[in-house]
Amino acid sequence: MTADHFITHLQLQPHPEGGFFKETYRSSGIIPSQSLTDFNGDRHYSTAIYFLLEQGNFSAFHRIKSDECWHFYEGDTLLIHVIDNKGNYSCTRLGRKIDEGEMFQFVVPAGCWFASETAPETPFTLVGCTVAPGFDFADFEMANAENLSKEYPQHESLIRSLCR
User: Fold this and answer.
1) What is the C-alpha to C-alpha distance for residues 52 and 73, in angstroms, rounded to an integer?
2) In a domain, 123, yes or no
3) Beta strands at 47-54 and 124-132: parallel, antiparallel or unpaired
4) Cys-Cys link to 122, which of 27, 56, 64, 118 (CB 3.0-4.6 A)?
């Protein structure tokens, strides 16, 4: 199977942060805004997408207001880069090689800056992302390389390589 096969058969579309996606689930249930903190408006309980990255492309640094659970499906290793609010950096390898430390699932905590890219030897990776409370573009912030580098100068090289 190739990336083009999945893009075609899953009807994936270009994503603003890079890669391709398709929303596959949006709960019918709604959390009222008065029950949420740090959100402007009501949110669905949960949402889910397919997300595909090809070698040479990346999902640019961004953050959202909800936890985001990543699920590995197909292809090979995906690198998920996370910078938390204290400036701590971590890289998680999502993939099928669990005996080499890769994971099938990983949660990016709400409010952390994160980006993803395929590992150097990986032609493509197909994953799923589940967000709760559900994803809304009002909760999405794309990083500005200049500003994020000033905030976390120890990670400037990585930030500049994974921002648009």
Assistant:
1) 10
2) no
3) antiparallel
4) 118
Handedness of CA 8, 11, 13, 18 (dihedral sign): negative
For 18, counting Cβ atoms within 10 Å of its Cβ (0-12 exposed, 13-18 middle, 19+ buried), the class is buried
Number of domains within the chain: 1
Q: List the domain range (segments joined by +) for residue 82.
A: 3-26+50-113+128-161
Q: What is the CATH number of the domain that holds 72?
A: 2.60.120.10
In the block, tokens 């993939």 appear at 95
- CA gap 90, 25 in Å, rounded: 29
In a domain, 109, yes or no: yes
Query: What's the mean pLDDT in 96-110?
Result: 98
